[in-house]
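User: structure tokens for this one?
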Amino acid sequence: MRLAVASLAALIAATAPASAETLAESMASAVESNPTLAAQRQRLNATREALPQAWSAALPQVSISGSASRSDRDSDNPALETGASETWSANANVSQLLFGSGRVMASTRAARAQIAGAVANYELTQQTLLLDVARAYADVRQAQAVVAAREQNVSNLARLLEFAQAQFDAGVVTRTDVAQAQARYAQARTQLVQAQGAMAASVQAYQRLVGRPPSNLTAPATATGLPGDLATALDLSVDNSPVLIAAQANTRLADANVDVAAAQGRVNVTLEAGFGTSGDFDDDTLDATSDSVGVRVTVPLFQGGAIRSRTRAQRALRSAASLDLAAAQRSVQETVTNAWTGLASARAAVDSAREQVQAAELAYEGVTLEQETGLRSTIEVLDQEADLLTARIALAQAERDLVVAERQMLAAVGILSVPSGGGALIEEDGLRGR
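Assistant:
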């Protein structure tokens, strides 16, 4: 038992530097170093290239080519034999789309919608990370509070065991009182080791998200920007929820894809120009040049029904995207409502838990004094000590739940960000504005 306690204490001490750290600093570190968010940022950068790719179809297409060859004809008939011929040629071609039946504009609308959806997905990933960091931060503080409460519990029970043993030696109490105190003391030591193990796990979860072990974590301040009522929260979610923004972008993307598919079966007009030159390496008199300018009109007449099939498929996907948007609206409304209810419950739980701790501490002091005067038995003091421990653990849980509930509310409406002073999100703000 002592070896296990020492091992866990050494692990926790090794991952707990002395400098203080705030929740804002933890969030900023996570945004800067978390590999999951960095990978999502690169996916966003890749998606942004869809717009210049779509625009490229409306810009001039220029290509050049060149070739050189040597030919030699051999034959059994000397009259048919020719000398070696070495020739070269070079060509330049330019084409410009004049009319594409709306294909380019539809492609650019699809690209913009795709980028908007990628930005929303990035925002969702970032806010999910920030919420996870807040949860891990609160878990570490809760684990620390639980360990402290159980350490105090072990200390109190050790003194009570000594007092019971002294009373037994003086013939005041029976062996049963000592056994009861010993049993509670052994149980408390076991629960302390378990609490230290849970704290070590919380430390590792925090380090996975933030990229470094937790320091002396300070109590988080009350989150700013919380909506004043449920109606305000629902209104905020309509404009800010990444889930809704992504679903809306998907509907625009599906609508643009219908036009892209339909345009494939319509007229295309292209202006084409070319220039070519060729010659013989051994005979300059064979050099020649050519140039051409023309307009190409392409009208697909029959493609085996493929274009119409693709158009019907995109229309079905457009209907599906509209239904997904309706489902997302219901899901966001449920999430916001549940977050609002959870926040109200968390606030009430903290107030009740603090009152419970105050009452339990007062009762414990009173029962302890009454035991010393012979008015209370050992088991009554043990029970009151257990009530005090339960109250302290409940307060740690309630305070943790309130920290998470506040950030859960902000994430539900889509406005969770690093608090001011965190020193991050400069690059993320730039990404939003691009």
